[in-house]
Amino acid sequence: MSPSPPAIRLRGVVKRYGEVTAVAGLDLDVPEGTCVGLLGPNGAGKSTTMRLLTAQSIADEGSLEVLGHRLPGDSKSSRALMGVTPQLDNLDTTLTVEQNLLVFTYLYRVPRAERRAAIERALEIANLGDRRGAKVDELSGGMRRRLLIARALVHRPRLVLLDEPTVGLDPQVRQELWALIDQLRNEGTSILMSTHYIEEAQRLADTVTVMASGRAVAVGPPSDLVREHAGREALEVYGPPARLREVEAEAREHGWPTRRTGTSVTILRAEELDGLAPEGERRTANLEDVFVLLTGEEVA
Amino acid sequence: MAATAETARPSRPPAAPRRRVGRLDRDALAGVLVREVVNFSSYWRSTTFSSTVEPTIYLLAFGFGFGALVSQVNGLDYVEFVGTGTVATAVLFSSVFPAMFGTFVKYQFQKTYDAILAAPVDTEELVTGEVLWMACRAGTYGCMPLLVSMVFGLDPSWGMLTVPFIAFLTGLGWASFGVFIAGVMKSIENFNYVTSIVITPLFLTAGTYFPIDQLPEWAQVAANLNPLYHCVQLVRHAVFGFEGWVDLYHVAVIAAFGLAAWRLAIRAMERKLVN
């Protein structure tokens, strides 16, 4: 039996806005039924990639395929099978929770006989059954975000695009949404989730694609990426700026990979230092180490 | 570099049955229209109030103000002349302004169109659904001046039953024009230029408050290019008696304006929304 085609397949995708190249030759696969995290700093090209997938931006070069449909020509067919949660809240604020969902049952062509059940299911996903009659204006930030996600699921899509799904939310609300996304993943929905929260990608994504300057600079399961780029352990060396500069110079001399973390210098692959290590605190290497190492320490 | 997953999960959520998607798809138009209808349920009272009160004020001001000085125009009582002419004004105001401001707010500030275009709806369907809805409103509210005029003495006629359709067709053009303006303008403040340079002159030279045959010849020629003038003429003929081929010519001009404005609106919004 041949394997099912990927939910998303991008090859050599380039998108330019005048002089700026937002996406610069991106390859990306989202295998069906998995959650792929698109991790990158602001300006890495994550949101442009999301817009390319809904054909709201048109690529200058490369090929894009979503659920077997080639974009942009066949984009409408692929959009019928996927749901999108945008980074910016674009709910109809004068409508009630239920009316917002009703509108999208029509936009997503849910058959008439199934509309009521689809709305009830979405209300259950958003946990907003008791607020169905409330105007969106009356909801908290977390409720609005849950409604935004539920709105994208009203037609039981095969693929969901989540663009920074928890940006600007409290840690409690963020965890609530993680549970919701995890549930979707467990039900077999394919998910592409852009985020710049490392923990979010580490917890939810089967595979992470680290983006920088419009390109994929690393791809793999989070644990593999950490092992490959940061090793098992990291050594945090704290001290005044002069001391940190000394440590960085020493690391350069020995060829140790480092990253700056504001108040400290982190030496990666600390398990390979063989007694030469300066004094510091050892900890397990994590995806943030990989992220900073690969995307650069300077803010663009 | 391509991503690979550790394991693909076996189950997949069942997808709802899909119909074939095509161009100007009925389902997509229905989706856009339903959104507008549901939204309208939250503000229909204020819109209906202003659409009824405004023509009443115009009729009172012009009908009894100028009416005291001018008893008859082109063989009609001045109140009848203004009452039928104001239909075009009501159509213009209930289509072009909501189209300009509403469209701009929805794509620039509320990002509503981003949400709709992420669903299986194209810009052509989005614009068409929006202008159809505004044309429906114009078709309804455009009749208000006639109803008010009847209170002031305008006799009902069978031809009046065609006025909603005339108002709808005219509204389609002006709503499209409004969407086009919203699509080409970079800021909402720039709408003032359009209102001053385009809409106000067209509204005043449509033969609503005075007959255009009193104007200089060049202005009469210009008025003939004004789609609003053709709406005014067609409504008067509908109310007081159709004039055959002349009215078909008026319909053709209004339809041509609507078709051109519709295509321009789609083109402008495609440039704005898809980049």
Detail the topology: elements first, then pairings.
The complex is a heterodimer of chains A (300) and B (275).
Chain A lengths: L7 E10 L2 E11 L4 E5 L6 H8 L7 E6 L2 E3 L3 H5 L2 E4 L11 H11 L4 H15 L14 H12 L6 E5 L7 H16 L3 E6 L2 H7 L2 E6 L2 E6 L1 H9 L2 E6 L2 H14 L3 E3 L3 E5 L12 E4 L2 H9 L5
Parallel strand pairs in A: 3-8, 3-9, 6-7, 7-8
Antiparallel strand pairs in A: 1-2, 1-4, 4-5, 9-10, 11-13, 11-14, 12-13
Chain B lengths: L25 H15 L3 H22 L6 E2 L2 E2 H32 L2 H7 L4 H19 L2 H8 L11 H22 L6 H14 L12 H8 L2 H14 L4 H29 L2
Antiparallel strand pairs in B: 1-2
Describe the 3D structure:
The complex is a heterodimer of chains A (300) and B (275). Chain A has two domains: 8-221, 3-Layer(aba) Sandwich (Rossmann fold), CATH 3.40.50; 232-284. In chain A, 35% of the residues lie in helices and 27% in strands. Chain A has helices at residues 46-53, 75-79, 97-107, 112-126, 141-152, 171-186, 198-204, 222-230, 241-254, 287-295, and strands spanning 8-17, 20-30, 35-39, 61-66, 69-71, 82-85, 159-163, 190-195, 207-212, 215-220, 233-238, 258-260, 264-268, 281-284. In chain B, helix 2 crosses helix 6 and helix 5 (123-141) packs across helix 7. The model of chain B is unreliable at 1-18 (pLDDT under 50). At the A-B interface, strand 2, helix 2, helix 3, strand 9 and strand 10 of A face helix 1 and helix 4 of B.
